[in-house]
Design brief:
The complex is a heterodimer of chains A (about 290) and B (about 290). With about 290 residues, chain A is an all-alpha fold. Chain A contains 13 helices and two strands, in the order αααααββαααααααα. Chain A has a single domain, classed as ABC transporter involved in vitamin B12 uptake, BtuC (Orthogonal Bundle), CATH 1.10.3470. A two-stranded antiparallel sheet of chain A has the order 1-2. In chain A, helix 1 crosses helix 10 and helix 2 packs across helix 9. Chain B is mainly α. Chain B has one domain. Chain B has a two-stranded antiparallel sheet with strand order 1-2. In chain B, strand 1 and strand 2 form a beta hairpin. In chain B, helix 2 runs parallel beside helix 4, helix 5 packs antiparallel against helix 8 and helix 9 runs parallel beside helix 11. Classes of the chains: A mainly alpha (about 290), B mainly alpha (about 290). The interface between A and B is large, with 37 and 40 residues.
């Protein structure tokens, strides 16, 4: 495969890992988050700092990065216990702006210059780049999808679904909103941290603007497009929104307009996403084998 | 001391402009419970429409009128075509729709008018004042007077007229308001007309105040005003005005005097999180 395709593929896989994390928070637990890029950024900056300033290798840094992302996820998930829906949405936007501002204005984080010279990933003494790094990301994605699949079948996942549908009813049958909302936040932000770490070691240069609010919107668009709360929706969304900008490179001037117009049409006519409940694709997939008409 | 007063006056002007934009947001949230992020895009369009009318006719009055009419049409179109059909879904659905509208309109402005900063070479016909060595420029006077007039009109409409009564009824409960013979859909549209017209006024004032009109001028207000309606108490109009004034003054004074390692735009969100932790219904909200 040529380098161009591998580059796009690697980025799509890294975004997909992060978007699966968002799907746990928004799709499974029903807690709207518009600041997911902040956690993606926290993972990226943590890994970049640990490997460039503390001299750890990627593999030594990774557990610390994931634990740290989860920990910050708990702290920043605390508002979700007090706030609902609209308040929570605005608070997460605020978190995104504050985290980005900290990256940009605190000299330790490299300020406006960002952090460069992030080392590549080594595995068994072999430097991973191109195809090899793509495969590494792909295996992480497989792991993340497996965890999501396992989560939806576990007690924790079922409890989250119940909270999403009706919080007070769920609480009245003994499901602790505090415990399971935070659980969803921790799992989601850990996945974002993993995605961020992979992103930092792939780009090898990061700056605060990579993790700004529009990135959060892109992540959210991916699950909205694919289908919120479904197992394969986030992957489909990441692939579609990852490929579309490349396909529309010839009309580069109208690209963002096309992108946002697509999001608008999607949310207006298919708010459950391509694979969600009651969507065109799902009707077609269910009716086709049965010989019915879509 | 003179510098302090000048900063204070600028801060009040900044706060007035925030208040004008935030009012529309509070109005829409009060009635439809939708976070109307695209309101900031309406404000950008208002500035462009005003500039367009001004450069063709040379009349500021026509510029304000043209901007208000154009923005009203845009606001009602957003409400009819996107928000109203999405009301039955969870609140994040219209919110994402609104963000998509916001970004699309920004892009359309960039494609139509170009990505560069346009100047708004107009002076508002208001007098200049000298107060103990501090000059209040004609633009500042205009901002104060126009804001006061708009706030006064809005207060009058919402408390003294039948339309205001109908709007308050609709914001409390749409089905019951319908049952009482109020055409709630029309009321919702009127709320959008009022909010969008005020946004157009704010856009034109900002354009003249900074002498700049550019496609992304709405980006920062879009999210800052969200923080402001939370601080004021979601849907509370007096709260929105107080929060905007406080933020405008605090931002200007902090930039002038305190050496904080944060950009001024993060301040609104820090204030918001602090208020939410202390009083989750906002300054003037009701539980």
């Amino acid at each position: 495969m040529d380098a161009y395709l591998i580059t796009i593929g690697t980025l799509i896989v890294i975004y997909a890992i992060t978007v699966y994390g968002l799907n746990v928070i928004v799709g499974y637990a029903g807690q709207i988050s518009l600041g997911h890029a902040a956690f993606f950024g926290i993972g990226a900056y943590a890994s970049a700092l640990l490997t460039t300033k503390a001299g750890l290798s990627f593999w030594e840094a990774l557990p610390i990065v994931i634990l740290l992302s989860g920990l910050i996820g708990i702290v920043l998930g605390l508002p979700s216990l007090r706030l609902r829906e609209d308040f929570l949405a605005i608070t997460t936007i605020g978190i995104n702006f504050i985290v980005e501002a900290l990256f940009l204005y605190v000299p330790y984080f490299g300020g406006a210059l960002g952090i460069g010279g992030i080392p590549r990933v080594f595995l068994f003494g072999i430097k991973l780049k191109g195809m090899a790094f793509f495969l590494l990301c792909l295996s992480f994605l497989a792991l993340v999808i497996f965890i999501c699949w396992w989560f939806t079948r576990s007690w924790g996942g079922v409890a989250c679904f119940a909270l999403r549908e009706e919080e007070s009813a769920a609480a009245s049958v003994g499901i602790s909103p505090v415990r399971f909302k935070l659980l969803a936040f921790v799992i989601g932000t850990m996945m974002a941290g993993l995605g961020g770490a992979l992103y930092a070691h792939y780009m090898r240069f990061i700056s605060a603007t990579d993790f700004s609010f529009p990135m959060s919107i892109t992540f959210l668009s991916m699950i909205v497009l694919g289908g919120m709360g479904t197992l394969w929706g986030p992957l489909l969304g990441a692939v579609l929104l990852g490929i579309l900008p490349e396909l529309f490179r010839p009309i580069v001037d109208y690209r963002i307009l096309f992108y946002t117009a697509l999001l608008l049409v999607m949310i207006r006519f298919q708010p459950a996403g391509l694979l969600g409940e009651g969507s065109i694709v799902r009707k077609w997939l269910i009716l086709k084998p049965a010989g019915g008409r879509p | 001391m003179q510098l302090f007063f000048e900063q204070l006056l600028n801060g009040i002007a900044m706060g007035s402009i925030y208040a004008l934009v935030t009012l529309g947001l509070a109005l829409v949230y009060g009635i439809l419970r939708i976070l109307h992020v695209a309101h900031a895009a309406v404000y950008t369009v208002g500035a462009y429409a005003g500039l367009f009318c001004y450069s063709y006719t040379g009349s500021l009055l026509l510029a304000f009128l043209g901007g208000m009419i154009f923005c009203s049409i845009l606001g009602v179109a957003i409400e009819r075509l996107v928000y109203y059909p999405l009301l039955k879904y969870p609140p994040y659905v219209p919110l994402i729709g609104s963000i998509a509208i916001m970004l699309s309109i920004e892009e359309i402005c960039r494609l139509v008018a170009g990505p560069y900063i346009l100047t708004f070479p107009a002076t508002l016909p208001f007098p200049e004042f000298q107060l103990g060595g501090v000059t209040i420029s004609s633009t500042l006077t205009a901002v104060y007077v126009i804001t006061t007039v708009v706030l006064g009109l809005l207060w009058f409409i919402s408390t003294k007229t039948e339309l205001g009564l109908a709007m308050r009824a609709t914001s409390q409960d749409i089905p019951i308001a319908d049952a009482m013979g109020i055409n709630s859909h029309a009321i919702v549209s009127i709320a959008f007309v009022i909010g969008s017209s005020i946004a157009a006024i704010a856009g034109i004032l900002v354009g003249i105040y900074y002498n700049q009109v550019y496609p992304t001028m709405g980006t920062v207000p879009a999210y800052k005003t969200l923080a402001l309606i939370v601080v004021g108490g979601l849907g509370s109009m007096p709260g929105a005005v107080i929060a905007s004034m406080l933020l405008g003054v605090a931002e200007t004074l902090l930039i002038g005097y305190a050496d904080i390692p944060l950009p001024r735009d993060a301040l609104a969100f820090i204030a918001m999180i602090a208020v939410l932790m202390w009083r989750s219904e906002g300054l003037m909200g009701s539980k």
